[in-house]
Design goal:
single chain, 354 residues, alpha/beta, seven-stranded mixed β-sheet, four-stranded antiparallel β-sheet, 13 helices, 15% strand, binds pyridoxal-5'-phosphate
């Protein structure tokens, strides 16, 4: 069946009259703003935070559009990409009726956001090498599957998914295919944003939380066909991205030097850390990574996790995930942090001998 956005959207969302803020209704540059019950005397802090922010983030979108070679109408900006994940589920999935599909082991938020919305989750496991099992995905999809979530590079496994496989799924499925590219700046292959024009059912998520170094700011991006973006704008809280976040994000995007430099350092450290960890006796496997973290299989994940925690070094124990048995997920830190991590694991090994 062919993709048809209007048929896919929940009825209550299609017919919804969205909240309309005074600031959006007024066209042109006003002289005096007495429409939004703000404090006209100003804020108690530096920047102009007494005014509500631009609900559609025009300046920021213009900049993001230029950087990514898309039209501003193809961009949604959220309070983190987690907001886009939640909104997409709410737009397309009827609670208690529809479902989403994920490919575990993968990012946990798809499942949590579905659970909050009373939307079921179908699973099509990644294959042995953590690649997409396309036949398994296509046979797991049922008539109530509305969204397929793919994560590339995948968290926590670190690998990129095949573009050919993603295209095959997007072409065969009449629902939405979300590709989460939170770690794309660390990857050896480019973004799928370039393919949006040819695929009206594709949504690409990115974020300022990782390579841009702004996790505390909460700015996430969704790139998609303008009709899908319009739906996201319709259901989002009107002022979901704060003025402080919009201004800071714009400042960051205008100067990509920090991004480029820290990505370069992270990639060099990823290589060094991979080699150093591979030399350790307790490390059984360091999986190849296209992200800023390493999935590492060790002899005793819980034991090592606990030892590192006692040295106040926090890594993520992923050994509870099927397919990630005895695995820790370790973020690539600064040069010095990585040195300390390696030293601590060496000491852990010594402590086991004694
Ligand atoms: C970190 C991460 C995100 C980022 O979420 P934000 O809400 O933008 O901070 C999204 N997807 C994956 C897979 C991640 O690992």
């Amino acid at each position: 069946m062919a993709f048809e956005l209007n048929r896919l959207v929940r009825d209550n969302i299609r017919t919804l009259t969205p909240y309309s803020s005074a600031r959006v209704e007024h066209v042109g540059d006003a002289r005096i703003y007495l429409d939004a019950n703000e404090n006209a005397f100003g804020p108690p802090v530096g920047i102009r935070l007494n005014r509500y922010p631009d609900p559609l983030q025009a300046s920021l979108k213009e900049r993001i559009a230029a950087v990514n070679g898309v039209d501003p109408s193809q961009i949604f900006i959220g309070n983190g990409s987690d907001e886009a994940i939640d909104l997409l589920i709410r737009i397309f999935c009827r609670p208690g009726v529809d479902n989403i599909l994920t490919c575990p082991p993968t990012y946990g938020m798809y499942e949590v956001a579905a659970g909050i919305n009373d939307v079921a989750v179908k699973h099509a496991r990644l294959d042995e090498g953590f690649g997409i099992d396309v036949p398994r995905v296509l046979t797991t999809i049922d008539p109530n599957t509305k969204i397929v979530f793919l994560c590339s590079p995948n968290n926590p496994t670190g690998n990129l998914l095949s573009h050919v496989s993603i295209r095959t799924i997007a072409d065969a499925f009449d629902g939405i295919v979300v590709v989460d590219e939170a770690y794309i700046h660390y990857a050896s292959r480019g973004s799928l944003v370039a393919e949006l024009a040819a695929r009206p059912n594709l949504v690409v998520l990115q974020t300022l939380s990782k390579a841009w170094g702004l996790a505390g700011l909460r700015v996430g991006l969704a790139f998609a066909d303008a009709d899908v973006i319009e739906l996201l704008n319709k259901v989002k809280p009107p002022y979901n991205v704060s003025e402080a976040a919009q201004e800071t994000a714009l400042e960051a995007l205008n100067d990509p030097r920090h991004l480029n430099e820290t990505v370069k350092r992270t990639l060099a450290e990823r290589k060094r850390l991979t080699e150093a960890l591979s030399d350790l006796v307790c490390v059984e496997r360091v999986y190849p990574s296209d992200a800023n973290f390493l999935l590492v299989r060790v002899a005793d994940a819980r034991g090592l996790h606990r030892y590192l925690a006692s040295k106040r070094i926090v890594v993520r124990d992923r050994s509870g995930l099927s397919g990630c048995e005895q695995c820790l997920r370790i973020t690539v830190g600064t040069e010095q942090e990585n040195d300390e991590l390696i030293l601590a694991i060496e000491n852990y090994e010594k402590s086991l001998i004694h």
